[in-house]
């Protein structure tokens, strides 16, 4: 008689499937965190922009909020466009 044990794989259960769905990679987790921070910054910037409509109130923006509010939108000519405009 042989005393070897035989292991049969357990059948997948619904809880196993739920755990697989919840499993995220580090890159996905980082993306979720960055997305949440960006959403919070945008919401904060919107609130501060609304506050700026109050006469006499000076809202202070941190750099990320200022960028989200559009304070640093660059619309100047590129170097190539500037060079091209000198030939007119």
Walk me through the structure.
- With 88 residues, the protein is an all-alpha fold.
- It has a domain at 25-85.
- The chain is built from 4 helices and no strands.
- The longest helix has 26 residues, at 26-51.
Concise structural overview:
With 88 residues, the protein is an all-alpha fold.
Shape: elongated
Mean pLDDT: 78
Runs in which pLDDT lies below 50 for 5 or more consecutive residues are none
User: What is the radius of gyration?
Assistant: 28 Å
Strand tally = 0
* Total of DSSP H or I helical runs spanning 4+ residues: 4
Structural class: mainly alpha
What fraction of residues sit in β-strands?
Answer: under 5%
The major pleated sheet works out as: none
Distance between the termini: 99 Å
Helix fraction bin: 40-55%
Listing every helix as H and every strand as E from the N terminus to the C terminus, the arrangement reads: HHHH
Question: So what's the oligomer here?
Answer: single chain
């Amino acid at each position: 008689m042989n005393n070897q044990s035989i292991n049969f794989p357990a059948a997948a259960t619904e809880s196993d499937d739920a755990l697989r769905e919840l499993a995220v990679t580090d890159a996905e987790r980082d993306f979720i965190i960055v997305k949440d921070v960006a959403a919070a910054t945008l919401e904060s910037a919107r609130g501060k922009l609304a506050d700026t409509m109050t006469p006499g109130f000076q809202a202070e923006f941190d750099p990320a909020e200022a960028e989200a509010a559009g304070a640093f939108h660059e619309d100047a000519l590129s170097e190539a466009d500037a060079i091209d405009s000198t030939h007119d």
